[in-house]
Each structure stands twice: as structure tokens, then as C-alpha cells.
Amino acid sequence: MTDMELPPAYITASNDLRSDTFTTPTEAMMKAALTASVGDAVYGEDIDTVKLEQKVAKLAGFEAGLFCVSGTLSNQIALRTHLYQPPYSVLCDYRAHVYTHEAAGLAILSQAMVVPVIPSNGNYLTLQDIKRHYVPDDGDIHAAPTKVISLENTLHGIVYPLEELIRIKGWCMENGLKLHCDGARIWNAAVQANIPLKQYGEIFDSISICLSKSIGAPMGSVLVGDVKFIKKCNHFRKQQGGGVRQSGIMARMAMVAIEDNWKERLHRSHSLAHNLAAFCKKQGIPLESPADTNFVFVDLRKARMDPDVLVKKGLKYNVKLMGGRVSFHYQIEDDVLERVKLALSEAFEYAKQHPCDQDGPTQVYRSASTEIDVHGNAIQEIKTYKY
Ligand SMILES: Cc1ncc(COP(=O)(O)O)c(C=O)c1O
Ligand SMILES: C[C@@H](O)[C@H](N)C(=O)O
């Protein structure tokens, strides 16, 4: 070991159910970073970055990959690259991250109109949903023709049925539309559905594959596509300030994340979520979506539960929540499952006596007032999200 000591005890996200983005680098990742290549990745000279891009592209069955520092950047430059001559539109699920959580990137970077669609089955867009809402390029000068269908797999933790994806792909090809996948949690879908990433790769024109979610790398995504597409994405990445230099450090950490039994790790996260979903069903706690993978979405509106009460009940049992979404990941300790059940039960019982009807706008972000915790200490201001 060099004279640089690793932090004596770095904090893991062992009780953090707010998101799978809170996982922390493992010691193996930190050690791998110490011997990472240090070339300038903007000039394509960082070996570990190139190796990561090639590895992920090959896993997904694409010609090329591009390391991006975030999934937001990866999604937005992919969609920008698929779009040529405005006016045009992108059709997606009304809950899609590219529409709801990427700060209007589609409007600003791509000058695109978004057609957000509510799935008729409540869970995922079908080809029929798409046909009913897409804007044909038929010369109507009032319209912004749909040029890209952007799907998310998983979305709300739901695994997209393969046969539906294949149907959508066939129709997109017949109608000259591109098909992008926000694959922030495509690893979860692949594991749960037992479908190789390459099979998803045969369906989409591009996939943004996050490394920093359930896989557990500290940051980044790899955008995959054909060579010409990725070359242009690289141009937009640079334009958006995403041309990072010695990214080998991050690439090596991501390689460890991918190599360290990701399938087993994700299966465990999913089983914890399935256990909690079964518990909610037994207790009569309504859920927004089927818990196919690592997320349990409690239907706060139907349960008339106040998210801040749930967050505070979570803190009472030393688990971190930020609203109705309970996000499992591989660093969650086993006993957190029983603790979050206690928190949910108490918040649900509280709601029966003190129903909370949130008829206001969808609040993406808000802070609860501080309070005294079970030990008599002031709880830091709790920031909660709509989830
Ligand atoms: C579905 C989905 N897509 C994309 C992103 C964006 O990733 P990042 O936070 O790395 O920008 C996230 C959130 O992290 C996400 O949940
Ligand atoms: C908040 C959102 O952007 C993030 N992707 C998450 O799932 O936690």
C-alpha cells in the first residue's frame, strides 16, 4: 500500500432507501482507482475509459460506447443526436426521467416538443398507446412530428415486456422513428427478466446505461450506439462540457462494479423489494406500481399518507426515506427491511387518523420542518422528493 491510506471508515449507504444512487464506492473500487490509467480521455487516450466503453458496448451488442459523467448527459446527447430538423417531438411516458427530471433538457438542448403519454395499462406504454399519441410527419405545418420514441427500462422499477418492445421496434422501423432507451436500471431489468443486455441492444437504436445506480459505481453512464451515432454524441458531449480528462479513475471503479457479481447483488435487492411489496399488500398499503425489481412505490395519494410523516417514521427506525419510493440496493443491510416495515406501518396507521390529501401540484422537492428525534436531538432539515 502506498503512503496514501484509505479513509479509516467510509460511510456506506447501509440504511439509505432514498435511491440506489446513494451507494458508496467499495474498497475494491478505491484500490482499483489507484492504478487507473491517466490519459486524456477527450483525445481518446485514456486506456481504462476506452476499455470500459468497449466492454459495455459489447455487453449490449453495439458498435461503440461513450462514457458520460451522468445519465442525464447521456440521455440528452443521445436524443439530441437522433434529432435533425426542428420542429420535431419526442414521445415518452409521462413519468419518464428525460421529461420530468432532466431540467427541460429536451426543450433547451434539442428544442424538442415532448409528447408525454399516460400508459393505458398504468404501467408501461404499449404500441397502441404510441400509435394513438405520436405525431405523424405528414406535412401538416401545425405539427411537430415525432422523430424519437424514448422508453425507460425499468421505469418505476417495472420491467418492460420484451414482446411489447419488439412490437414497438417493428413499428418504429416501418415509420422511420428512432427508439432510445433510458437504461438507468436496465441491469435490473436484464437480471429480473433473465434477458441478456444484448437482446435489448437488438431493439434500441441507443441505450443510456447507467453505472451509478444499482450497479453501484460512484458516477457515470455509458451511452451505446453505432459508430457514426456515438461520434456525433461525442461532439454534443464536448459541447455540453462533458469532455472530462483523466476519467480512467472512474472507469476502473465502474469496471469493478460490473465485474463484482452484479447479477447476484441485484437479485438480492429485488428480493428485498419483493418482500416489502408482499408486506404492503398484506397490510393493505396501496402501491403505485408492481414491484418487479428494486423499487417499491407506495401510493401516498391513495393511502392519504404524508411523505414527511413517512420520512420521519423512517428516521425513528434509522432508515432514510425521501417519500413514497423505497429504493433497495446492494448495500442495504438485511435488518433495514424489518425497520422500514415498522416505519411504513406506523405512517399508514397515522394516516388513518390524520389523512393527508395532497391536492396541490406535484411537489418534486420540499423540506419538512425540523423536529426532535427519538434521542432528543434535532433532526436535520429533511429534504423530501415527490417519489
Ligand atoms: C431513470 C433515470 N434516468 C436517468 C437518470 C439520470 O442519471 P444521473 O442522475 O446520473 O444524471 C436517473 C437518475 O439518476 C434516473 O433515475
Ligand atoms: C432523483 C432522480 O433523478 C434519481 N435518478 C433517482 O432515481 O433517485
From TrEMBL:
Pathway this chain belongs to: Amino-acid degradation; L-threonine degradation via aldolase pathway; acetaldehyde and glycine from L-threonine: step 1/1
- Under Enzyme Commission nomenclature, its number is 4.1.2.48
- Where does the record place the modification N6-(pyridoxal phosphate)lysine? K213
Arranged from A to Z, the UniProt key words for this protein are: Lyase, Pyridoxal phosphate
- Tell me the enzyme class: lyase
Is Transit peptide there in the keyword field?
A: no
Reactions catalysed according to its record? L-allo-threonine = acetaldehyde + glycine; L-threonine = acetaldehyde + glycine
| Listed GO MF terms | L-allo-threonine aldolase activity
Question: Could you state one GO biological process linked to this protein?
Answer: L-threonine catabolic process
Q: Which family does it belong to?
A: Belongs to the threonine aldolase family.
Name the InterPro entries on file: ArAA_b-elim_lyase/Thr_aldolase, Low_specificity_L-TA-like, PyrdxlP-dep_Trfase, PyrdxlP-dep_Trfase_major, PyrdxlP-dep_Trfase_small
Task: Tell me if Lyase is a UniProt keyword of this record.
Answer: yes
Quote the protein name from its UniProt record. Answer: low-specificity L-threonine aldolase
Q: Which cofactor does it need?
A: pyridoxal 5'-phosphate
Output a single Gene Ontology CC term carried by this record: cytosol
Describe the location of the Aromatic amino acid beta-eliminating lyase/threonine aldolase domain by residue ranges. Answer: 16-302
- Entry's Pfam families? Beta_elim_lyase (PF01212)
